[in-house]
Amino acid sequence: MRRFEVHDRWGLVLALPIFAYVTEGVITPVLYAGGPIPFFPLWFTGWHGLLSVLVLFVVVRRLAIERRALAMTALSVGVGLFWGTWLSTSWLPENLQDPELLEEHGSLVPMEPAEFGAYTAVFVAFLLGAHLLLDRAWPVDTTRLFARTERVLIAGLLLGAALWTVAAPWALPMFVVLCWIQFRLLRRHRDRRSPDQPTMLESLRGPASPLALLPLVVMAPVATAAYWFWWELSPSEVVLNWLYYGTIAVQTIAATALLVVAWRRTGRADAERASRPERDRSPAAV
User: Fold this and answer.
1) DSSP per residue over 236-253, as a string?
2) HSE on the CB side for 92, CA within 13 Å?
3) Mean pLDDT per 10-residue run, the chain (286 residues)?
4) Are 14 and 182 in contact (CB under 8 A)?
5) Prediction pTM value
6) Helix count (H) and strand count (E) of the chain?
7) How many CB atoms lie within 10 A of CB 101?
8) What pLDDT shows up at residue 106?
9) At CA 171, angle to CA 170 and CA 172, rounded to 5?
10) Phi-psi region of 107 (alpha: psi -120 to 50; beta: other; left: phi over 0)
């Protein structure tokens, strides 16, 4: 967002996949499970990009800056309902036997509502604390580039992706190509920005209202209540599969649609800029 001077929502859409690729392509190798098929990159863009970055970072901070406590409460309720409902899909047999979930949870039995409630409380506490800390540490000059730190970070990410080539030989090339595509589009987005147009990071500078952030705590009890509801309802495996694959489908379609619109808008702007000199030389322009 800083390097490519993201200055509108479509530029943000172009930047969102990068976080998804790092999360699922460096921290874990799930991104490469489908090979060259773009399903996983698009799904994780919807999951980590739209939900984590757009909703829990950008939208939450925007609402806190604008001191919209009521809207923050509504957002927290919505995320909590989604969270508690989504976790019920972890009861599916294939998810209970997932190696990562098994390592984290330590058993093949579903997480009980009380255990999930404690987990949500810790997560929301970290989320609230992170936004409060972020407000105190927000850089004054968001355009400044710390070149050495960035080089170290990029080298670490490339090394992390390269390590997964042991399991998937195409891991590093796939990671690099996916990021390169987004970087290329983000460069075009940066070229469209006028010098006096503020970047999104500048518009999110703050200060954020702690009182407006406080409704985030609603997320934990709402998520726990939603999870408890499904626990008591004890849905069939068919229903859980509909919830599971339906959620994945919605996220993937939403990410795909937004990216296509962002790509087309970027391409249209390039075409208009390329044709402008010809119009300027036309008799009508003269």
Assistant:
1) -HHHHHHHHHHHHHHHHH
2) 16
3) 90 95 93 89 95 95 94 97 94 77 64 93 96 86 68 90 90 94 93 87 88 95 97 94 95 95 79 54 42
4) yes
5) 0.85
6) 13, 0
7) 15
8) 58
9) 100
10) beta
